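Priority: low. Protein: DUF3055 domain-containing protein. Input follows.
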Amino acid sequence: MTEPQQELDFLSDSTEQTSTRFVTFIGPSLQRFDFAVTSTNRFYGKKLVTDLQNGKSAILGSDDLDEEGYIEHVFKLNEEEASELRLFLVQVIGDAYFTD
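Result:
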C-alpha cells in the first residue's frame, strides 16, 4: 500500500553563490572552535554561522553579538567560551544592512 502523494507548498526556493570561511582556533581557555561562516545576500548582511562540532547554526549580525547571553544560548557555551567565540565573531561579522 502506498501513501497518497502530498504536495509541498514552497514559500521560497532559490539558489545563489555564497562564500564560506572555515575556521578552527583555540581560545585562551584551550577550548577548540570549528566554525563555518557563510556570507550570502539572503540575510540582510548577517552571516550564517555554524558550529561544526555540534551542528548548531545561527544567523548572526553585530546586534546579536551585543545581546547578553545569546551566543551562550545558541551554541550551548559557558560564559568564558562564548566570550572567546565573540572575540572571533566580532572580526568577521559586519554591520547588518537593510533594504527597502
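The first helix runs from residue 62 to 66. The helical segments are 62-66, 70-75, 79-92.
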